[in-house]
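Q: what does this look like with protoporphyrin IX containing FE bound?
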Amino acid sequence: MNVQESARVDTASVPAHVPADRVVPYDLLRISGSDQDPFKVMNALRTKADIFYTPVHFSNSAGAWVLTRAEDIRHVLQNPQLFSSQGVSGFSKLLGETWDMIPLELDPPRHTQFRAILNPLLSPVKIAQMQEGIRASCIELIDAVANQGGCDFVEAFAKPFPVRIFLQLMGLPLELFDQFLKWNNSLLFGESMEERIAAAAAIRDYLRQLIAERKKNPVKDLVSSAVQARVDGEPITDDEILGICYLLFVGGLDTVAASLSFYFRHLAMHPQQQQQLRENPALIAEAVEELLRTHAVVMVSRFVTADTEVAGVAMKQGDCIAIYTSFASFDPAEIDHPEVVDFNRSLNRHIAFSYGPHRCVGSHLARRELITALEEWTRRMPEFRIPSGAAVKMHGGVVFSIDRLPLVW
Ligand code: HEM
């Protein structure tokens, strides 16, 4: 979708309390095209207004407010009483069911109780114990293409890598890899709604069966820990355990795949920075922070629980707010030359993993995956680049992604 096409966006659903000069008739979910870097397209919209209203939003047919300033974004994310997460994902609705994605769709104090269950299961210590397996998966996927002279990075690495790590995290055997990869592709990238719903149901059925099995025979894994967890002294329900497992599945796959795809596109287009990492692997952890900032792929939503104002803009109970984490990354009020990717940046306060109580509980695992991928690709592979004339298909959405990234070496 380009700027001319935005004229086709229907503004009839915009609520009466939204001033006309704050409406930006642009479908942010549909930014697409090989010539359109979704981060650049988004960032250009900052000039329209600090806070504007998009008539198109996935979880609210009337549209959503969009915040562009990091300060306003943090204000909303750290006030869950006024800006609630209830009902933001819509995954169970897809199946005609009502369970929540946990802890994402809970507000404090209930959220805090469930976070307390998950924090130790995904702590730095737990993730350090996974490191060997993460590296082995990474190397195996690289070895499979190393002698081919090139690959589609998305299919060969970005998508399968986090699926393998999810199986490891859940204590599931690698034989399930093809099945889970297929479910993941159908659920998130399926061409028809029927295909997506069928995948959503198949994943739910598999997880329900796994939960029942771990209840009968607990082992030392994440699902068994969830099954045995208690909130207010009571065991958590099967729907709550399902909500946790389902969120770990959808939360940790395309976020990592999309991030890796953008990082490798950047490195393929900037051979000097690629070389910098090859020569100085100690820089990779900082490089990942800078790439997280400049390619913050996730958009999160909140619903306003009582009439309020954000930076002087009146919002009504029930309004939806779309928080594109990348707007905070490029806020010139907080970051010098925000558009420059600088691996030696000393101050880097990005919110790619969100902010406030819902800050990504998988961030330690995500960082491990991203760092390991950069370490092994730069250690094992010669300089890689995008072949001239090859199309890289990027798009915006709830998670900004790349569909195809041809690389050669
Ligand atoms: C680069 C990769 C990742 C990015 C950019 C990312 C981003 C995010 C963001 C922005 C949120 C906040 C949502 C909100 O505020 O509404 C979040 C929450 C969450 N993420 Fe991640 N994530 C990544 C990887 C992972 C992984 C690998 C896992 C699983 C192990 C995971 C599990 C979760 C969970 C369970 C939540 C909900 C936390 C809560 O509500 O308290 N994420 N993530």
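The chain has one domain: 17-408. Residues 85, 103-104, 115, 122, 247-248, 251-252, 255-256, 259, 297-298, 300, 325, 352-354, 358, 360-362, 365-366 surround protoporphyrin IX containing FE (CB under 6 Å).
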